[in-house]
Amino acid sequence: MYFFLHLASVVTIQVNSAFYSATGGVNTSVGNILFLTASMNADRKTMPNRDPFEDLDLFRTIEGRNPRFDDAVRRPYLVGNQLYKNLDRVKADFYPTEFDYVTGFVSAIVVLFILTGAVLYFIRRLFEILLLYLVAPLFASTIPADDGMLFKKWREVFIAKFFSGFGIIFSMKYFLMLIPMIGGSELVLYSGTSNAYIINNILKVFLIIGGAWAIYKSQHLILQIISPTRLWQPGRRT
Predict the structure, then answer these.
(1) Which range is most confident: 5-19, 83-97, 186-200?
(2) Alpha-carbon distances of 199 from 5, 46, 92, 183, rounded to whole Å
(3) Fewer CB atoms near the end CB (10 Å): N or C, the chain?
(4) Number of neighbours of residue 204 by Cβ within 10 angstroms
């Protein structure tokens, strides 16, 4: 168990380093990503000032505008140099009335519940590992009786549950890498009608929620690889 604990720590550190290098040295959070996703049409530098109650032209922008997560306005928030909690700074960089609040709040609430469930499930894994560790002598004592068959099953379950948490880590890192592409203005999922802007944002919300749900379901990813016999079966839960 001590060996597995150190091995898990080493693998986690290496995974973080690999993803950190793949993202160009940007180590952001889900909160920053969701904030920037909702701010794509709210920055003062490239968006004209308008009255949201009278001017309904959502597509009226400065010529040559190409908002990105790593542009001059948003990159400080992406890398953590500026905090979206600093309201005075946010008001200086963005129009408060131009934020896509529907996309931001819906994504944030759904992601909050899904990731909370993933964290609770991960905590449950910790207690399961502790319980398996405590009952290990009982399974080891059966080796002379069945040539270690029962102990072999215990070992498979123990190793699988110990490393099953890596599925969440991998999925979370991929999620943070893909969210900027989903929320950016370069990805257009629907166009051609007067309400294309709204439909496009709704489709992006579904993609963000689907990614969060994939993180929650990824808890069984490593478990399925290491111990296929421990999969969900009708009438039985692992």
Answers:
(1) 83-97
(2) 47, 23, 29, 13
(3) N
(4) 23
3-state secondary structure of 85: coil
Q: What is the pTM of this model?
A: 0.66
The amino acid that residue 165 corresponds to is: G
pLDDT of residue 118: 78
**Among 48-62, 134-148, 176-190, 209-223, which is the least confidently predicted range?**
48-62
For the record, the structure tokens of 23 come out as 């993202």
Angstrom distance (rounded) from CA 237 to CA 181: 37
**Beta-bridge mates of residue 43:** 94
Q: Contact at 8 Å (CB) between 216 and 117?
A: yes
Angle at 214 between CA 210 and CA 216, to 5 degrees: 120
Structure-block tokens of residue 149: 């068959």
Helices (H), the chain: 2-22, 30-38, 75-79, 87-93, 101-134, 136-140, 143-146, 149-163, 166-183, 196-217, 221-226
Report the chain's C-alpha Rg in angstroms.
23
Exposure string of 228-238, with b = 16+ CB inside 10 Å and e = fewer, is eebeeeeeeee
Between the alpha carbon of residue 137 and those of residues 8, 141, 227, the distances in Å are 23, 6, 21
Structure tokens at 39: 């701010």
pLDDT digits (tens, 9 = 90+) for 160-208: 777 776 777 777 777 777 776 776 666 777 776 656 666 777 787 788 7
Do the Cβ atoms of 8 and 162 come closer than 8 Å?
yes
